[in-house]
Amino acid sequence: xxxxxxxxxxxxxxxxxxxxxxxxxxxxxxxxxxxxxxxxxxxxxxxxxxxxxxxxxxxxxxxxxxxxxxxxxxxxxxxxx
Length: 81
Hints:
The chain is mainly alpha-helical. It has one domain (4-79). Helices cover 81% and strands 0% of the residues. The protein has helices spanning 4-25, 31-42, 47-59, 61-79. The longest helix has 22 residues, at 4-25.
């Protein structure tokens, strides 16, 4: 069974991906940004998503820098005990 921390990371990642997909159709949300945040969170657990994130990094380098900053902050929250 997954630990609570892993479950929270998994759910948070997919929530951001879902918001990103909504953002592709709604002008209020920035879809690509939310998708990349979700993928950055999920990439800590999945090699497939890590490869996808590398491809997105090449296509959207400006967003990637912002995402990695957010990823580092989020990972620090979960590393504190």
